[in-house]
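Chapter summary example.
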Amino acid sequence: MANRRNNRLSGEMRKVISEIIRNDVKDPRISELLSITDVHVTEDLKYAKVYISVYGDAEPTLKALSSAKGFIRREVGRKIKMRITPELIFEKDDSIENGIYMSRLINRVIEDEESRKVNDEFEEQGE
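The structure predicted for these 127 residues follows.
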């Protein structure tokens, strides 16, 4: 029961935080190509890890979000009626880069296998 509630709260916080960052936070360091990929709220509702994906360098955006996290937290508490508003922790989400890296590795293995098959067939015909 608590897990379902946590999932609903995480999803709602993801939407609200995205909206707040897009419309209310006026920091030029925040990239326009920012996406909130996920939010994980702890069971006791004290902390929420907010995972962001940024095209390009994420460090300036992370610093800007860290300096604005008090404002964002207050706005989240105002928009989502909660007794306890979790403390926000912003982290870079590397899942997209990891997925691209894994895809490249898989493609490389496939290419190596295909070239081995061609070499093996060529050697068999030469004998």
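To summarize the output: The two ends are 69 Å apart (CA to CA).
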